[in-house]
Amino acid sequence: MLLASTSRLFLLGLVLAAAAADPGPANNTAGYDTSRVGPSNAICVRETYQLDITSNNIQFHDVDSNANQTYLEALFQTFSTLMTNLTLMYEQPYRQPVHNSYNISGTLCVPKDVIENTFDVQLLLHGITWDSSYWDFVPDNSTEQYSYVYAAAEAGYVTFRYDQLGAGLSEHPEDAYNVVQAFTDLAIATKIAQMLRSGDIGGVKFDKVIGVGHSYGSITISEFMKKRLYYTPGPTGRF
């Protein structure tokens, strides 16, 4: 698993650092269609949630805080050819608890035609270098056939998607190496699942939280299930 591999965590930290580095308020929403909140068959509300999060993170040293594409490509080339453990050059020998309050932007979508499954909610986690907007992908504002949120609403499912830390409309921490890590993302996903169960999002205490992940998001969900936090065993992956 990714969260158990320090080598992969190191590279993940670098990728997240480049993606999460704050380019300034004017550019944080670049490429994000803030005018679209959800599909036509759902009632959607986008809010920013302030979460108090504690995670036990890896600490890095001697890495470039301004990691651009050239720096990352050179590092990947070194990693792929080096026969020794590259992470030992940059990773501190200890983990450090990191406690912060983060602003996370999330969108809850409830089907307009309430049929079934409305007491379950699908928690949608996106991949690295992306944000949650692609779950409701509509090219050229035309057909909604490519929107996952639309398809879920058609089937009667409530969905909640959020921009992971350092992406989209969520907060972009300055310390992307030691803060924006897989451990932090797991803690945030755990907190949000708890909020969905307790009624702190949308005012509804959902019976089940169904994890739906793409790429890195699926890894977070798998680790979440491995720890059996709010997880009911079964083929559907329900928390």
Describe the structure.
This protein has 239 residues and is of the alpha/beta class. It has a domain at 23-57 and 97-226: Alpha/Beta hydrolase fold, catalytic domain (Rossmann fold, 3-Layer(aba) Sandwich), CATH 3.40.50. It contains five helices and five strands. It has a five-stranded mixed sheet. Helix 3 (148-154) links the parallel strand 3 and strand 4. It holds the Pfam family Abhydrolase_6. Residues 1-21 form the signal peptide. This is Alpha/beta-hydrolase. Residues 123-232 form the AB hydrolase-1 domain.
Mean pLDDT: 81
- CATH-defined superfamily of the domain at 23-57 and 97-226: Alpha/Beta hydrolase fold, catalytic domain
Major sheet: arrangement of strands: 1-2-4-3-5
Number of strands: 5
Characterize the main sheet: 5 strands, mixed
What proportion of the residues form beta strands (DSSP E)? Answer: 15-25%
Order of helices and strands: HEHEEHEHEH
Which fold does the CATH topology of the domain at 23-57 and 97-226 refer to?
Answer: Rossmann fold
Distance between the termini: 19 Å
Inertia-based shape? globular
CATH architecture of the domain at 23-57 and 97-226: 3-Layer(aba) Sandwich
Radius of gyration (CA) equals: 18 Å
Name of the level-1 CATH class of the domain at 23-57 and 97-226: Alpha Beta
Pick out the low-confidence regions.
Answer: 1-10, 21-27, 229-239
Structural class: alpha/beta
In helices, the fraction of residues equals 25-40%
Organism: Phanerochaete sordida
Pfam families: Abhydrolase_6
Keywords: Signal
Domain AB hydrolase-1: 123-232
